[in-house]
Write the structure tokens for this entry.
Amino acid sequence: MSRERFEELVGEALDEVPEDLLKLMKNVVILVEDESPPDGPELLGLYEGHALTSRGWDYSGVLPDRITIYRNPILRICEDDADVVDEVAVTVVHEIAHHFGIDDERLHALGWG
């Protein structure tokens, strides 16, 4: 799958997130990269930043949080385009949940692991 089509899928997944939640997302950027960092496990996505639940009165002047969706790892685990669509949606929701302070254990319990 081309990078362009993959990026479209990420956009489509974002379109499915309720607008009220998207309005609450503050100081965050969503990116697509081909590969996850080489110094760790192969990731499908990664949230880097300060979750909304941990931001205090002194939160200011910081770079945007980053949600990165990794194209090739997702493509490697999917059998067909329909699987890619589903996995991109799950990964986008999973990483957005981290922005809202929801940890991996809770996400797995909710079926978004």
